[in-house]
């Protein structure tokens, strides 16, 4: 059984170790994530080159996701690296304090606008909510607080305002520089951190165009404002990432699972891809096998219909990056094997009026695939849109997307159930094209003699958005 759910793995010092990156790709990584919160441009370029060399040698497609840091809403550093905060004690967040001079009484803040965004009785959550502070006063450049929940607070931990409302823009000057770097090495996806609305994504799209990039945009859902504006953010993006760390801090852990399920479903309805992220296999940073809770978490996301599940520190800094990818791949296959994952396409198209021919063809092909004896779906695609539309419907039938464009293949590495293959039409005659398609599938061991396949394509070759043809063929 082919795994349909894609795996996104973050690169870092762990994946830089000899042989590890190749092992991760062999184990099932479909997309690599470059975290621009860490490392230099040179580090990222070196990793991109390594990924592309290995992928070319192994003859697989591996997408590149460049994740922008976003606004640094965090404290600065302490003299001794960390402090112990005691419940009930006063603590000051000081925007004028030296960056490396924090102590038990105060610490500097990287986000200088905090003094303008908060008021007495506001609750500030630090280090993913482990430390809780209540604002007691705001004076000039200082935010006075009382420790509600104490503990160890170390350098550069994040700050969230309970209920949202921080005014930091989604794109910083650093993000703009990083975006240009990613455009120059031809990234497939750019992830925008902390977008509040569709306009933040529109701004990123304009910057991409100016940089001459065709990269697709991923909106990281991390703010409570994004929850309120989810439809416009989805429509302004090509994919969303449910970034459960900051999001959970802002909306509360209890609401997180419902939001995850609702947003995955909504993105599928609006024909966008989804990535479920944060702490999915967290224990494997230190341990060689996952916890049962982590197995259930990954399985749940798969059954929700997410396109991809993501590894962060597990693959970037953990002790067992290859083993983690293998374990995640096995969990995905186990979840996908459940009968509930093979559903009729009828639920996706009930009461729906198609507005485009390619969408009608894609949905028709999925109805056939799920109600007829078919071993594979094949779409000849310029932009990858037909493959993406097909992947919105649950099915255990593999989707092979044949394209002549490396960029399109890169985008499709994220789509659930879609396997991109290199293909260039050499004939105009339809029968010859079908024979070419079957030859490519045989070469990739995707079909065998007697298999029944569905092929979609446009009647005119090399026309984007022109899919208007559906054919059933038998492999001979």
Automatic annotation (TrEMBL):
Pathway: Carbohydrate degradation; glycolysis; pyruvate from D-glyceraldehyde 3-phosphate: step 5/5. The keyword Metal-binding applies. Keywords: ATP-binding, Glycolysis, Kinase, Magnesium, Metal-binding, Nucleotide-binding, Pyruvate, Transferase. Its cofactor is K(+). Residues 3-325 form the Pyruvate kinase barrel domain. PROSITE patterns: PYRUVATE_KINASE (PS00110). InterPro entries: Pyr_Knase (IPR001697), Pyrv/PenolPyrv_kinase-like_dom (IPR015813), Pyrv_kinase-like_dom_sf (IPR040442), Pyrv_Knase-like_insert_dom_sf (IPR011037), Pyrv_Knase_AS (IPR018209), Pyrv_Knase_brl (IPR015793), Pyrv_Knase_C (IPR015795), Pyrv_Knase_C_sf (IPR036918). It catalyses: pyruvate + ATP = phosphoenolpyruvate + ADP + H(+). Its EC number is 2.7.1.40. Pfam families: PK, PK_C. One of its GO terms (molecular function) is kinase activity. The keyword Endoplasmic reticulum does not apply. Residues 359-472 form the Pyruvate kinase C-terminal domain. It comes from the Bacteria. Gene3D superfamilies: Phosphoenolpyruvate-binding domains, PK beta-barrel domain-like, Pyruvate kinase, C-terminal domain. Belongs to the pyruvate kinase family. PANTHER family: PYRUVATE KINASE. This is Pyruvate kinase.
